[in-house]
Each structure stands twice: as structure tokens, then as C-alpha cells.
Write a structure and sequence with these properties.
Layout: H1 2-55, H2 58-63, H3 69-77, H4 83-86, E1 91-96, H5 98-102, H6 106-112, H7 118-126, E2 129-130, H8 136-145, E3 150-154, E4 160-166, E5 169-173, E6 179-189, E7 192-197
Parallel strand pairs: 1-7
Antiparallel strand pairs: 1-2, 3-4, 4-5, 5-6, 6-7
Length: 206
Amino acid sequence: MKTRFLWVLLAVFAFSLTSCEDTKKKEEEKAEMEQAEAQRQAEMEAEKERMEMESNSIAAKAMATDSLSTLVSALKSAELAATFTEDEGPFTVFAPTNSAFDAVDDAALEELMMSENKDQLAELLKYHVVNQEITAADLSQMIQDAENGEATITTLAGVDLTAMMEGENIVLKDENGNTATIIATDIEASNGIVHLIDAVVMKKAA
């Protein structure tokens, strides 16, 4: 009788143990599924944010602006289009219009657009970019605060542009003393801001 009772107890214990293990296993599987779903949702949200950022990026804004088609071609030739599509920045781009590029010597521009000269082209384009967001109001304030009315802006090319007022217009002076007028301001993008200029600024020749 005792033996039979013992076997019954062992059977009940074994059943309880198995039931507990099954419950624990189901809970672990449920937790794993919930974790996987949360990760999937996070990845989907991150991908959505990335796509929204890229669709409103500086490069996307430039591609959607007819008067910046030459600049877009130059960015692609210099392999910089991805930078202004994917990088979060923020950047400020002083974007030369097509007519600004038209004023550059045709032969010199064609040579820069060649694949073997992409590094030189990249340096030229970086001279039009600042690694921070600067609005037109910011520029005006910087000029106003400058002792001589000339604010210095360091570009991605590692050299400076000088911002100053010319009448009611903000003008940029390059290393050669040539100027470009900002003709449209504060075009907002997901990774910065764009100002259109009417000339291509140039670094001083080495």
C-alpha cells in the first residue's frame, strides 16, 4: 500500500514538474516572440525615419530644384551625393545655381567633372559647405557682431569664406576676393539648410 502511494506521489510530482517546465518554456517562447516583434517594429520605424530623412535631405531638395541640376551632377561626379542624402549633418550648403556654373570656364568645368579629377571637384564643392546649420538670420547676426562687418565661416574644405552685407544682400567673399550673392535663403532640409548663390566660390590656387 505504501509502495503504491509512493508511486502515486512520484507520478504527481513528475506531472507537476513537467507542467511547470512546459509553462516556463511557453513563457520563454512568448518573451522571445515579443522581443523579436519589438525589434522588428523598431527596425521598421528606423527604416521609415531613414527614408523620410533621405527624401527630404539636402541632396533630395537639390534634385527637386531645376536651377541646381549642374550642382547635382557635380555632387554625383565627386561622389558626394550620398553624403548629403544619408549623413544627418546638420550642414549649410551655399548652392551655386546653374547660371553660376555657366559663368565658370567650360573647359575647366568639364575637366573637373572627369572621374580622375573627382577629388579636386570634391574640394571645390566642400568649399560651399559648412558643418553646422546657419540660417540667413544667423549670418546677418554674425556680420553685425563682427568688428569690421565681415564674418568668417570655416568650410568643409578647411578654408574660410567671408560673409558681409552689400546693401540688403548677404555676400560671400572667397579666398581670391571674388564674391557671390545669396539670392535665396533658408531652404530647409532634414540634414541642414540650403542658400542659393549666384556664383561659384573658389579656393586660392596652391
